[in-house]
Write a structure and sequence with these properties.
Blueprint: E1 3-11, E2 14-22, E3 62-65, E4 71-74, H1 76-80, E5 89-97, E6 106-114, H2 120-133, E7 135-143, E8 146-155, E9 158-164, H3 186-199, H4 210-223, H5 244-258, H6 289-345
Parallel strand pairs: 1-5
Antiparallel strand pairs: 1-2, 2-6, 3-4, 5-7, 6-9, 7-8, 8-9
Helix pairs in contact: 3-5
């Protein structure tokens, strides 16, 4: 990355040569002004008010306009002669807890890179000291013609610097808070807490500029001659007086649905039970409690039937035995009569 400023960090009597590198970049899409009649580009020209002629950049200087409109010229040489100890130095003035820095003061962010091999040791020393102390360094530095306030902290293994606004540049929030005494009920706070818990945390790296992507798609479509369809605009109900409780409840449900937790809406409710219809398939329905009870009641009857069947079998066996005995006795009588007949004839 290209450095935008070279200097040193003043850490007591320790001097750390560093390079200043932009830590952020702007991805906004920039438009040009054109003449609608012919598409010609509109340009701004620097024209002198006295002679109404365009002035080249080399002939343009700076001046301070006094209250009566008088212009007081100020040259770069005039500014260079001013005693500015932070002209090429980031001078650390204090170490404070990070929560003492008001986020309203945050401005541009930079990375501080060690400039050369000799700077590696003191650079690492300052970085590790900041890590162990859990504090940030408050410093002064000069950039683009003015002295500024900065905050040094550690990001991964790099010292980063955030430009800070001076305390007197922060405006007091007078007349910004809602007028009148507004009361918030506990039920509303509970729903707000539930909504916060449902939304939960987010991976900051997953956030992106949806509007910029839509603008890029629009530009690509128009460049290729495609017809651009207007996007559907959702009515968020902004500016309308709404039922706060209902809005919070709907917000919680919508947040759960968007996170795939819609199934949790019915927790604690009984499910409807429907009878299973008989089908012609091989599978048969599971027995219900009523059919199991009926089967138990019918069990004694089937036991009685088994007993009567056994009795019948025994009676049949007795009859069969009697017949066999009668048949055997009859047969022996016949044999005796035949033998007596033979004896008589003899």
């Amino acid at each position: 990355m290209r450095s935008i400023w070279n200097g040193a960090i003043s850490f007591g009597l320790v001097s750390i040569p560093i390079k200043l590198v932009n830590a952020t970049e702007n991805h906004s899409i920039h438009f040009r002004q054109i003449h609608l009649a012919d598409g010609g580009r509109i340009r701004y020209r620097k024209v002198c008010e006295l002679d109404e002629e365009e002035v080249p950049g080399g002939e343009i200087g700076k001046a301070y306009e006094d209250a009566d409109g008088t212009m007081i010229p100020i040259t770069d040489e005039d500014l260079a002669q001013l005693p500015l100890p932070t002209a090429k130095t980031i001078e650390i003035v204090a170490f404070v807890p990070a929560d003492q820095i008001d986020p309203l003061q945050m401005d541009a962010a930079y990375y501080l890179s060690a400039n050369g091999v000799p700077a590696a040791k003191p650079y690492t020393l300052l970085r590790e000291a900041l890590k162990r102390s859990n504090k940030v360094a408050v410093a002064k530095y000069a950039l683009r013609g003015r002295e500024r306030l900065g905050m040094l902290r550690v990001v991964d293994d790099v010292i980063a610097m955030h430009g800070l606004l001076w305390p007197d540049e922060i405006r007091a929030p007078e007349g910004v808070a809602p007028d009148g005494d507004v009361t918030v009920r506990d039920a509303e706070l509970d729903l707000a807490d539930a909504l916060m818990d449902t939304l939960g945390e987010v991976d900051m790296d997953s956030l992106h500029d949806d509007y910029r992507e839509a603008v890029e798609e629009l530009i690509a479509a128009k460049a290729s001659g495609e017809t651009v369809r207007p996007a559907e605009s959702g009515d968020t109900g902004g500016g309308k007086v709404i039922d706060l409780i209902a809005a919070l409840e709907n917000s919680v449900q919508a947040a759960k649905k968007s996170r795939g937790e819609a199934g949790d809406e019915g927790d604690g409710e009984m499910a409807d039970v429907h009878p299973i219809k008989k089908t012609s398939g091989k599978s048969s329905p599971q027995p219900t409690k009523k059919s199991t009870a009926a089967a138990k009641k019918s069990t004694p009857k089937s036991t009685g039937a088994k007993k009567s069947t056994s009795t019948t079998k025994k009676a049949t066996a007795k009859k069969t035995t009697t017949k066999k005995q009668t048949s055997s006795s009859g047969g022996s009588g016949t044999k005796k009569t035949a033998s007596s007949r033979k004896r008589t004839s003899a």
